[in-house]
Amino acid sequence: MKLSRFSRAGSAVAIGALALTLAACGSDDPVGSADGATDGSSEGSSETASDLSGELNGAGASSQESAMEAWRAGFQSANPDVTVNYDPVGSGGGRTQFLEGGVAFAGSDAVLKEEEITQSQAVCGPDGAIDLPVYVSPIAIIYNLPDVAELNLAPATIAGIFNGTITQWNAPEIAADNPDATLPDLAITPVHRSDESGTTENFTEYLAATAGDAWGHEPSGDWPTQGGESAQGTSGVVQTVQGGEGTIGYADASKAGDLGTASIKVGEEWVSYSPEAAAKVVDASPRVEGRGEHDIAVELDRTTTEAGAYPLVLVSYAIACTSYEDEAAGNLVKAFLTYISSEEGQSASASAAGNAPISEDLRTDVHAAIESITVGAAG
Fold first, then answer.
1. End-to-end CA distance of the chain, in Å?
2. DSSP string, 283-338
3. pLDDT tens, position by position, 165-185
4. pTM score, whole prediction
5. Cα 185 from Cα 168, distance rounded (Å)
6. Which terminal residue of the chain, N or C, has fewer Cβ atoms less than 10 Å from its own Cβ?
7. Residues contacting residue 8 through CB under 8 Å, at least 6 positions apart
8. Distance, CA of 48 to CA of 33 (rounded, Å)
């Protein structure tokens, strides 16, 4: 079966309380056309208005929430007869909904596992699903210490904090890297995600690659240790850190707000997060080997010592089928994903979320992958 359920269940998909639903705002600028083709351009006129219509449902990474708000606004302004719903339930929940045929696309901070690619054949046909990088952002180490404006944390120190072996803010390990800071004699409360999370998988992958014996856990989307506090979603972690002095957590940098953010040690220098520092790591990293022709999974180099690079970064993906039996759903997916990965779409999300736009070379590969998606009878 190839997504035939979308036409029957599209409007009935359960969208959570945080679901993002487009409101018609109208525009003469086309983004898509009836056959799903789109060039991502904002140029157009009333004579070339979009013929796209219908409802498109997606779910997944909460890290993409701010970007998704910008993407939906831009896409809707050019396609007033389309409604896009996105439930920021988390990467794991989004992949589950997608693999069960409940949504037409998913957002995920981690690529599909081999068993998930096999599972996707049930709804996507024999070639399964593909991962398309559309959102690059640093993961910030956020903390709540009102009297500590700047904080340096080495990978092993971060690991010790989240392992529960470093328990006080004035511990020698923290003090050694912050000689000019007045650190309080205050208990540390680490905060992690309670749900399966691509942000957690990226964070634990970074620690596994850089912290040595101080970490000792395999990368996982499920938090691997006991202790500390837990919270649902990116917003939940941020709110929990905001709610108590002495707390520390990890979150997509776009959601850090007014919280303190730590610099991390890369080689012999301390590097604070920025879109530019995150982009350096992605462009220098290879692709995962052994994937399908149009599957674009990036194998991030967490151990880079390149000056100015920030390796605590996530690449968030749009997950889509290589084939859609439902022609309307397939056309909407192709048009929407082409827009969000376009120069215009990436600029919109960068302004809204502070993420790093994907490079021109990566965009070319993503658009070729989207173009390869077949719909309707061709699927």
1. 11
2. HTSPBPTT--TT---B---TT---TT----EEEEEEEEESEESSHHHHHHHHHHHH
3. 999 999 999 999 999 999 999
4. 0.75
5. 6
6. N
7. none
8. 9
